[in-house]
Structures are given as C-alpha cells and as structure tokens.
C-alpha cells in the first residue's frame, strides 16, 4: 500500500478523520495502530520484524540507563546494535527473498542512532512503549524515512496530546506538500522511468546519445521520486501535527560533492557523519586518517544501498571525489557546478545499472557509438516528452527560486483563498489527468523502497 496506491487514498482519509475524533490522550495509540496496519498491508511478517526490532531497542535503552555504568551499558548497546546489523544483513544480503521487509533499512538505522544517543547520554531512554513504538513505526516515514532523531521526533510524540490539530496554516502547508510530492512522483519521476527502464533494460539496442540522455534524465527521476516521497511523508505527518525533517535541499545546485551530501538525503548523510565518520575519529587524527574515515563512511553507504559491486563502486567514487575535489575549489562557480553535477550524474549511472558488466557495456557504447539509434524505443510520444520537459522545468525552477530565497509555498500562503484554490485545483487536476499510472491505479514503487 504505497502512498500513490488506491488503497492508501482510501486508508489515509479514514485514519485521519478518526485521528481528529479520538481523545487527545489516545492520539499516539491511534497512530501506532494505524502505523502497524499500514505495515501489515505489505505483509504480516514485516510487522512482526518491526515489533521485534522495536522491543529489543526499547528494552536495551532502559537497561543501559538502569545499569548506571558505561562499562556494563556498552556491552548491552553493542549486543543490540549487533543484533540489528545482523538482522538487516540477513534480510538484505543473506535472504533469498527478493523483497526486503518494508522500511527495515530506515528503522534499523533509526534504532541504532537512538541506542547510541542513550549510551552517550545525549537523550534519555523512553519508558513508554507506546510512544517508542510510534517513534519507530510512524507510517509516513516508515518506508523510506527520513531517519529521524529521538531528540526531535520523540519530543513531538510526547507532546502530541497538546497539539491543536485543526490549525489552518498547518493544514494548508501539509496539503501543499502532499500535492507537490504527488506531482514530483506521478508527473515527473514515473514518466522518466519509462525511457530509463527501456534503455537500461536493453542498452545494446541503443546508441551512446540515448544512453547519455537517459542517464541525465535518471538524475531527475531519482530526485523527484525520493524527494516526492519525502514531501508526501512530511505533508501527511504535518496534517497529524508532527514535523519530519527536511531530507532534500536543492542538491543539484551544489558546487561540490561535499555540499551535495549536505543537501541530498540529509537524514542519511547526517546519520553517517554522526555515527560512523565521527565515531571513526573524523578529522581529529590527521589528514590521512581523515581520508580513510571518509572512504570507510562512503563504503558503508554503498553497502547500505545494495549488494551489487556497483554499489560499492558508487560509494568509493563519492568517497574519493571528496578527497580530490579540493583541486578545483578556486575554479569559477559555473565550472564547479558543472563538474559537481557531471560527476553526480555519472555516479548515478553506476548506481542504476544492474551489474558491473552492464556498466562496462554502457560506457563502451557511450564513448564509441555516437549515433541516435532507436529514439522510438524509449517508448514516449511527443506529448509525453513535452509533459516531461514541463515537469522538469517546474521542479528545477522551484529549486532555483528557493535557492534565491523566493519561497513559492510562503508566497502562496499569503494569497487570498481564491488564488490558493485555483493553484491547488490546477495542481491536482494536472496530477489526475496527466500523471503516469500503472495497473490497478498503483504506480511503480518508490525507488528507495528497495534500499
């Protein structure tokens, strides 16, 4: 039951209306029930795995605080962190089941971060199992994050009974985020998926021009797919009175790969920085140790994303470029942007291919065959290409304006109700009429669900 499925379009309004009706003291419990219902829609076993992870984390954190001694507590933390890592590795790398338990990569990292925060004494262990269960299972962020921190999300959960849910500005902002996320997913990402899948699936039938073109398109596909999910998750959470962290901040306007990772998948990049890079020593043990720590951090990022060697190569590329890119730090901004975007887009080819063998074949065609061999094989017609171009221009234009401090959402909130209604209606109509839909009114799964 993904966010763009007919099932979710029926599920969420019912859950939300009942959420508004229940007594304030029962809000957390109701959202927990709804979250496990959402998880069960993917499979009962997935909900049991989530419950096991949640209970192990909750009990371990309380036990560490009761120990009163770091010497004893670190063994408990170490054992439960190891349990989570082995559980993730089993399902991600050792299981023959091609479908991962929903959200396991995200709630595992969230649990490990919480345990380490408790061990470091930066947060106190949550005693209430209902609140902690909601922290782990909250359905808007369950499937693809963001990977929330306990000092933010748990604090909001604890005060949820005091929130005014029918707040006009919150409802407007949440609804607009939800609509914008749907637009990015259905109007842009899923339309781009058609030529990208066609070319990457049978790259031998295409020339270098087509391969390079769809690789450029894939940069926008993965951005609009993941950013679209995050916008929807944040919008749904905001309607429920909860603020989830911003996960993207105009990443393709970055002037360095280091800056790119401060803007892309922010919850993961900050998690890797705080719990891997800094734990390894960060930049505190000399230049060469810093370089080793960077490479190890991005190797772990590559492993987290998947089992293929191309994911390891992708992680190595991002680690190495952050060591080397100091060579062109003084170049003009336009050159730095071009080099950064060019590298990121090339790395997306490594990320997207099915194997290193496919990568070798595609790169060979790209540098030796400059023909446009089969444009019709990319499976989009003239109107589809036009809609795709308009969608990309809208997404890019919004990011450029936001980068210049011009907030479209803030501007719209200040307009009168008639202008807002026209914009909302136009956006919703465009999604319904021109969105890309699969069988049974369910679009292709969000890309990061598989990671």
Account of the protein in words:
The chain has 451 residues and is mainly α. The chain folds into 2 domains: 6-162, no CATH class; 179-243 and 347-450, no CATH class. Helices cover 70% and strands 0% of the residues. It is built from 19 helices and no strands. It has helices at residues 6-21, 27-40, 44-67, 70-94, 104-120, 129-137, 139-142, 150-158, 168-201, 208-239, 257-263, 266-277, 287-305, 309-324, 333-352, 356-368, 382-403, 408-413, 417-434. Helix 2 packs across helix 6 (129-137). The longest helix is centred in the middle third of the chain and has 34 residues, at 168-201. The chain is globular, with a radius of gyration of 23 Å.
Sequence-ordered SSE layout with sheet pairings:
Blueprint: H1 6-21, H2 27-40, H3 44-67, H4 70-94, H5 104-120, H6 129-137, H7 139-142, H8 150-158, H9 168-201, H10 208-239, H11 257-263, H12 266-277, H13 287-305, H14 309-324, H15 333-352, H16 356-368, H17 382-403, H18 408-413, H19 417-434
Helix pairs in contact: 1-2, 2-3, 2-6, 3-4, 3-5, 3-6, 4-5, 6-8, 9-10, 9-17, 9-19, 10-15, 10-16, 12-13, 13-14, 14-15
What is shown here, in short?
With 451 residues, the chain is mostly helical.
Q: In angstroms, what is the radius of gyration?
A: 23 Å
Q: Please, how many helices?
A: 19
Helix-strand pattern, N to C?
Answer: HHHHHHHHHHHHHHHHHHH
Structural class: mainly alpha
Specify the biggest β-sheet. Answer: none
Q: Averaging pLDDT over every residue, what do you get?
A: 89
């Amino acid at each position: 039951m993904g966010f763009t499925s007919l099932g979710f379009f029926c599920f969420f309004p019912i859950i939300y209306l009942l959420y508004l009706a229940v007594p304030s003291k029962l809000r957390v419990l109701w959202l927990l029930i709804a979250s496990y219902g959402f998880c069960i829609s993917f499979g009962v076993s997935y909900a049991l795995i989530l419950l096991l992870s949640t209970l192990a984390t909750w009990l371990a954190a309380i036990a560490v605080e009761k120990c009163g001694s770091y010497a004893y507590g670190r063994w408990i933390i170490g054992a439960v962190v190891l349990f989570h890592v082995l559980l993730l590795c089993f399902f991600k790398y050792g299981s023959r089941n091609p479908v991962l338990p929903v959200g396991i990569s995200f709630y595992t990292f969230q649990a490990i971060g919480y345990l380490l925060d408790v061990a470091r004494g930066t947060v106190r262990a949550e005693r209430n199992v209902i609140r902690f269960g909601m922290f782990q299972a909250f359905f808007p962020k369950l499937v693809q994050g963001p990977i929330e921190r306990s000092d933010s999300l748990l604090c909001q959960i604890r005060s949820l009974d005091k929130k005014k849910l029918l707040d006009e500005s919150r409802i407007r902002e949440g609804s607009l985020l939800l609509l914008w996320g749907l637009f990015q997913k259905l109007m842009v990402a899923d339309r781009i998926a058609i030529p990208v899948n066609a070319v990457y699936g049978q790259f031998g039938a295409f020339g270098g021009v087509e391969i390079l073109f769809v690789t450029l398109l894939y940069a926008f596909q993965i951005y609009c797919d993941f950013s679209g999910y995050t916008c929807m998750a944040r919008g749904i959470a905001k309607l429920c009175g909860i603020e989830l962290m911003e996960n993207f901040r105009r990443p393709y306007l970055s002037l360095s790969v280091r800056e790119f990772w401060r803007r892309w998948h922010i919850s993961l990049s900050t998690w890797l920085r705080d719990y891997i890079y800094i734990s390894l020593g960060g930049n505190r043990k000399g230049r060469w140790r810093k370089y080793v720590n960077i490479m190890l951090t991005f190797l772990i990022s590559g492993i987290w994303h998947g089992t293929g060697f191309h994911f390891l190569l992708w992680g190595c590329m991002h680690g190495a470029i952050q060591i080397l890119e100091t060579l062109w730090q003084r170049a003009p901004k336009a050159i730095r942007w071009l080099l950064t975007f060019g590298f990121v887009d090339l790395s997306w080819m490594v990320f997207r291919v099915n194997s290193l063998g496919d990568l070798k074949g595609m790169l060979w065609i790209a540098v030796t065959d400059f023909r446009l061999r089969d444009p019709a094989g990319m499976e989009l017609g003239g109107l589809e290409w036009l809609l795709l171009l308009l969608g990309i221009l809208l997404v890019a234009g919004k990011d450029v304006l936001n980068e210049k401090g011009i907030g479209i959402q803030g501007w719209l909130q200040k307009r009168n109700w008639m202008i807002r209604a026209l914009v909302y209606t136009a956006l919703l109509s465009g999604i319904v009429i021109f969105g890309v839909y699969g069988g049974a009114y369910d679009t292709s799964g969000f890309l990061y669900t598989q990671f």
